[in-house]
Design a protein that fits this description.
It is a single chain. This protein is an alpha+beta fold. The protein has 2 domains: 367 residues, no CATH class; 186 residues, no CATH class. A hairpin with a 5-residue loop joins strand 8 and strand 9. The N terminus and C terminus are likely disordered. InterPro entries: TRP_C, TRP_Flc/Pkd2-like, TRP_N. It is found in: Membrane. Pfam families: TRP, TRP_N. This is Flavin carrier protein, putative.
């Protein structure tokens, strides 16, 4: 029963990722390489295709030999490291006249040979269906009479099916990008809770995709084809995207700046092996057990590509163009991000001037656009930091051209400088907030400029774990150093990378730094999968000298684990995006962060009152004017509002203990300097309007304030109990932040008024803070006009 379930899951995964364009069964090989020193046969071109339907073997080869005489061949066929076919063949019995006998010199053959069914029946049918098959054919050439080994040749076969698909690349890229775009849109509209969740999960998904490619960039001895193909699907996350005209430009640029560009894709003088089957099959006479013990090396007719070069070559990118490709796409997408943001702002301004939308709807976006665009660019730089660090450090060892080395130096310095300055400011502001308010969220979330510009460093984490971004950055830089500088020694990098992944996973689970439990669990799983990937690459590097089948089987484990986990993460991101887009209140769809960040965030939706007052003055109905006055009173915060919230919290707690009533209360120095959140020009206009109101309207406003507030608090609960929108004072949020939700409702209904003289101070609009008509209602968005206007 269990085996059938596992088989069904495997079939489903393969059906999602495997191409079905190749309907005809075949086995083909395009590279024939030597697998021993001083081989007397050196191939320069090889192309063989076997059709099992008519048993035809079409081959074209070009080789040079120094053998003279009759030869025999010992053939071995390996599948996933297991020896499945082994046979001695007399070349003359096959009718190959070119090899019977063979003479020194160049040999070119282009022919068709029909293989006996005796041999074709030994090939299992699954060999034609499984994608990225790990099949190796080894040919040991010996002198017929003396049985002296003259040459060793090896070919890697493919059936034309692969899991590396353009559709998979586009799907993963679009879904990951969609999550980041929706998060940015939600933050613009003010849905900070939903935006924080989607942004955190989308960013983690993107970093996970990068981690799969990064671990595959290690120059290990043997990467199974299935594992190599899956990492190729995610190479876009590191900027390895091929467009032909770009590759032509990069080749010209490298050459014109003093470099020597490679031409592997247009050259026919040398063969390229991308190290999918790094080990050869070493034949030892008289030994029945065969093993993979001989490492292939580059020589005059063969290039063996490993690590970063292998990833680039599989993406159809020349090795000397890899760094230029990564840099170019990083800069282009950055420019595209800025253009889109400027375009969105321009459209909003035009619609506002045309009176198609409410001027207050995007007031915060327009007013803080410079900080928003800086924050977006800094977030984008942080996402691409791993890519830039690895490519820049690796360029120092490659020296594609002097110009590329200069660019690498600039990218490293600018990247470390910008991100280092950002994290330094976050740490400084967080510590300052702790000293002043005993809570890092007070300044990190209370100051909109800080939140918009440097929020990318800490918004996905719990407010008290704002520093964890520094840990994440250091972890990525540590891995990048070993991967970039150990491309010539894969065994050196695999162990430190695994230790770093394991240590980070343990520390992540111990600290639980993300904003709530579901987000923590998702990141735990991502980190665990990343650690397992690093563990598998220990075996791919042949660090333990294990048998060949071990690495081949672990290649399938790598694919199944990462494909299934990626599918789950993509579905989660899609669900989060749909919930946010479809829901009328996206914030209600996500569990709130387990901190008090939202208590410090001021909403901008009611700060600008001119639009409301204009409508109120044009309406003869007195009720609208009183309702406007209520909105004006609700938005009256002083400049030191963070300090006042803590003072109000202390007072409320002191009243519960008679022995400490008002003893610890300290009035801030600027308590009497009450200022509003809008411009001074609007402030003078409001004072004039309020001063000219007659006594009748003032009394009527005071009467209606309490009545309207009570009605609005019950309005939605009558229509729909599950969608209640009420309003709570900021000070109430701090008092009840850690209490149970049921107790919170009861306490809010019977909130004891604060009687300290400071709270009896009257603002310019005759509104007393201690007499707030909205203080007994509950809403985490105290300045949201939707609750009472």
């Amino acid at each position: 029963m269990l085996s059938s379930v596992v088989f069904s899951i495997l079939t489903l995964i393969l059906s999602c990722f495997v191409s079905t364009t190749e309907a005809r069964r075949k086995l083909s090989a395009t590279s024939l390489v030597t697998c021993m020193d001083n081989s007397q046969i050196s191939p320069s071109y090889f192309n063989v295709t076997f059709n099992p339907d008519d048993r035809s073997l079409r081959y074209a080869l070009d080789l040079t030999t120094s053998i003279s005489g009759y030869i025999t061949a010992h053939v071995q066929v390996y599948a996933y490291g297991f020896l499945i076919i082994e046979k001695d063949i007399n070349v003359c019995s096959l009718g190959w006249k070119q090899f019977c006998p063979i003479y020194p010199g160049a040999l070119q053959v282009d022919s068709v040979q029909y293989i006996s069914s005796e041999y074709t029946k030994q090939i299992p049918g699954i060999a034609y269906q499984v994608p990225d098959i790990d099949a190796v054919v080894k040919l040991v050439v010996k002198e017929r009479d003396s049985q002296e080994t003259l040459s060793c040749l090896q070919a890697n076969f493919s059936n034309g099916k692969t899991i590396s698909q353009t559709g998979v690349k586009w799907a993963t890229a679009c879904i990951a990008g969609l999550g980041l775009i929706v998060a940015a849109m939600l933050s613009t509209f003010g849905n900070s809770n939903a935006a924080s969740h989607i942004s955190a999960n989308s960013l983690s998904l993107f970093l996970y995709f990068q981690s799969v490619v990064v671990v595959s960039m290690q120059a290990v001895e043997r990467v199974p084809p299935i594992a190599s193909a899956w990492s190729e699907n995610l190479a876009w996350s590191m900027g390895l995207i091929r467009i032909q005209f770009m590759q032509n430009i990069f080749r010209w640029y490298i050459q014109s700046t003093g470099g020597s560009p490679t031409t592997y894709f247009i050259s026919t003088t040398k063969q390229v092996l991308v190290q999918k089957h790094k080990r050869s099959l070493d034949y030892v006479a008289g030994v029945a057990k065969r093993s993979l013990e001989y490492a292939l090396r580059s020589h005059s007719n063969l290039y063996v590509l490993r690590g970063i070069k292998r990833i680039g070559y599989n993406s159809k990118i020349e090795p000397t163009s890899i760094v230029a490709t990564g840099y170019t796409w990083f800069v282009l997408i950055g420019y595209l991000l800025v253009v889109l943001m400027v375009l969105v702002k321009s459209v909003i301004v035009l619609l506002t001037r045309a009176k198609k939308i409410n001027p207050r709807t995007f007031n915060s976006f327009r007013g803080s656009f410079p900080n928003l665009i800086k924050g977006s660019l800094l977030r984008y730089i942080a996402i691409g930091s791993t890519q830039l660090i690895i490519f820049s450090l690796w360029e120092f060892t490659q020296n594609d051209s002097p110009a590329m080395v200069v660019l690498a130096v600039l990218f490293v310095l600018l990247l470390l400088g910008v991100l280092g300055w950002s994290y330094f400011n976050v740490m400084r502001i967080g510590k300052q907030s702790i000293r002043s308010y005993n809570n890092p969220a007070a300044l990190l979330y209370g100051d909109n400029k800080v939140l918009q510009k440097w929020g990318f460093c800490y918004t996905m984490f719990h407010a008290n774990k704002y520093w964890f971004g520094v840990v994440l950055m250091g972890y990525n830089v540590f891995k990048a150093l070993f991967i970039a500088f150990c491309q010539d020694a894969g065994k050196v990098s695999v162990l430190p990378v695994f230790v770093a992944d394991l240590a980070y996973t343990i520390y992540l689970i111990w600290t639980g730094p993300y904003l709530n439990k579901p987000t923590n669990v998702i990141n735990y799983m991502m980190s665990i999968v990343t650690t397992i990937n690093s563990f598998l690459f220990l075996f791919f590097s042949d660090l333990f000298g294990q048998p060949a089948p071990v690495a081949s089987i672990m290649g399938w484990v790598f694919f199944i684990l990462n494909a299934a986990f990626s599918l789950i993460l993509l579905i989660l991101v899609i669900v989060f995006v749909l919930l946010s887009v479809v829901s009328k209140n996206p914030d209600a769809r996500f569990a709130p962060a387990k901190d008090d960040r939202f208590s410090f965030q001021r909403k901008s939706s009611i700060k600008h009152r001119s639009f409301t007052e204009k409508n109120a003055s044009g309406n003869k109905d007195g009720g609208d004017e009183e309702l406007t006055a209520l909105g004006v009173a609700a938005q009256d915060h002083s400049a030191d509002w963070e300090s006042q919230m803590y003072k109000l919290n202390d007072l409320s707690l002191d009243e519960e203990d008679d022995s400490r009533t008002n003893q610890d209360f300290v009035r801030p120095d600027n308590a009497n300097e009450l200022t509003s959140d809008y411009d001074e020009g609007e402030e003078d206009e409001d004072n004039t309007r309020i001063a000219t109101d007659d006594d009748k309207n003032k009394k009527l406003a005071a009467k209606w304030k309490s009545k309207i507030s009570r009605k609005l608090s019950k309005k939605k609960s009558v229509k729909n109990k599950n969608d209640t929108t009420t309003v709570r004072r900021l000070s109430d949020t701090l008092i009840n932040d850690e209490r149970d939700s049921n107790e919170r409702r009861e306490e809010n209904d019977e909130l004891t008024p604060i009687t300290n003289p400071y709270n009896q101070s009257t603002a310019f609009n005759n509104h007393k803070r201690a007499q707030s008509t909205t203080s007994t209602l509950s809403n985490n968005n105290p300045t949201n006009t939707k609750g009472f206007i």
